[in-house]
Design a protein that fits this description.
The chain is an alpha+beta fold and 228 residues long. The protein has a domain of 156 residues: Fumarylacetoacetate hydrolase, domain 2 (Alpha-Beta Complex), CATH 3.90.850.10. The protein is built from 5 helices and 17 strands. Strands 3, 4, 5, 8, 9, 11, 12 and 15 form an 8-stranded mixed β-sheet that branches. Strands 6-17-16-13-14 form a 5-stranded mixed β-sheet, with no helix packed on it. Strand 8 and strand 9 form a beta hairpin. The longest helix has 13 residues. The two termini are 30 Å apart. This is DUF2848 domain-containing protein. It comes from Streptomyces achmelvichensis.
């Protein structure tokens, strides 16, 4: 299991012993847009899900607060997401996350690719109850760095994605809304013409009403060449 620590706006800290991690997929609010995305991915060889939205359980240790992600090859990349975290007292927290995915493996199975890299989470969080009345206005952005230049690759709002309340209901129905649960939201579109296979990813969850942001960043580090 993983132990995560989140600082809240009042300065208090929440420790979370992660017992399960679930990655939402094809989780756009508009399922017509999702269907179009599924068709685009099919042309790239990525198998279509049996249902949308999808939910992929991954190993609990993949929930990490880290500044470095090891990669076995050059075709792995992140995805800007929000994360719903159930703390020890059952309170729901909201934070920024980046699902680092193996794109080579994705064509063989999305669930496999999700288990091949970590879900990187920020070190700060908000109580979901404190921002729930303005969730759709919260911004979600990601930048990639190439040769020292940082480029915006994702830019949207939470209005584009299914809500934390939607997923909380799904988890509650499964008996999975328990302390130590981490749910990763699914992502928003990437900008055309920006190379996702970058040496650094940065994700920001912003609240325009207060000007507050939660962010994370990590370097993608090639692993040594294997022997054998």
């Amino acid at each position: 299991m993983a132990l995560l620590s989140f600082e809240l706006p009042d300065g208090s800290t929440r420790q979370v012993d992660v017992v399960q991690v679930l990655n939402a997929g094809y989780a756009g609010r508009s399922q017509d847009d999702v269907a179009a995305h599924v068709a685009e991915l099919a042309e790239l060889g990525v198998p279509a899900p049996s249902t949308t939205p999808a939910l992929y359980p991954v190993s609990a240790y993949l929930a990490q607060q880290t500044g470095q992600v090891g990669a076995q090859h050059g075709r792995t990349s992140g995805e800007a997401e929000w994360a719903l975290v159930v703390d020890r007292d059952g309170e729901l927290l909201l934070t920024a996350a980046c699902d680092h995915t193996d794109r080579e493996l994705e064509v063989h199975g999305v669930a496999w690719s999700k288990n091949a890299g970590p879900d990187v989470l920020a070190r700060r969080a908000w109580r979901l109850a404190d921002v729930e009345d303005r969730l759709d206005t919260l911004t979600l952005r990601a930048w990639v760095t190439h040769d020292g230049d940082e480029l915006l690759i994702q830019n949207g709002t939470l209005a584009e994605l299914l809500t934390p309340a939607y997923w909380a209901d799904v988890l509650r129905g499964r008996g999975d809304l328990i302390p130590g649960t981490v749910l990763i939201s699914g992502t928003i579109p990437m900008r055309d013409g920006v190379d996702q296979f970058a040496g650094r990813w940065r994700v920001e969850l912003g609240d325009p009403a207060t000007g507050h942001v939660i962010d994370l960043a990590y370097d993608v580090v090639p692993l040594p060449v294997p022997i054998g």
